[in-house]
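Marked as duplicate of an earlier ticket. Keeping the data here for the record.
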Amino acid sequence: MVEGVQYYIDPKGNWVFTAAYHQERGYCCGEACMHCPFNYEAVPEPTKTSAQLIRATENKNAIHP
């Protein structure tokens, strides 16, 4: 695995997998990963809706700070 491509390390020291990593894997694992490119399709409710709302809010703030 290549740091900066498949993952990065956040300020707390956690490994965070990128959308590229998830896309290479080919499916949603159901863990509500931050960079899930599959729209959380395997994540159970209510976590799925919560993750989608968080992503929508983050995207809105990124576009209109």
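See parent ticket for discussion. Residues 12 and 34 are 15 Å apart (CA to CA).
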